[in-house]
Amino acid sequence: MSCGKPVAQLWETFQKRMELGEDPKKILDELGLKRYCCRALFLTHVDTYKQIAKYKR
After folding, report:
1. Burial tier of 53 (Cβ tally within 10 Å: 0-12, 13-18, 19+)
2. Domain map of the chain by residue range?
3. For a 10 Å CB count at each end of the chain, is N or C smaller?
């Protein structure tokens, strides 16, 4: 479920701050992500592009 709000531009910022050990709640609040659907996108995302890139045509 998603409300359709564009949030992709915030992903790198979120990821970098998470790597620094910041609290996810604080990061999401500061990025302005208030809706549960937007927050869920960031908290449940799994990068799979490196795994998929192995299987080129």
Report:
1. exposed
2. 8-53
3. C
Residue 27 makes CB contacts below 8 A (sequence gap 6+) with: 13, 14, 17, 18
**Degrees (nearest 5) of the Cα angle 46, 12, 50?**
40
CB 14 within 8 A of CB 41: no
Are the C-beta atoms of residues 7 and 33 closer than 8 Å to each other?
yes
Residues 6+ apart with CB under 8 A from 5: 35, 37, 38
List the structure tokens of 33. Answer: 């992500």
Q: Which fold has domain 8-53?
A: Arc Repressor Mutant, subunit A (1.10.10)
So what's the pLDDT on residue 55?
85
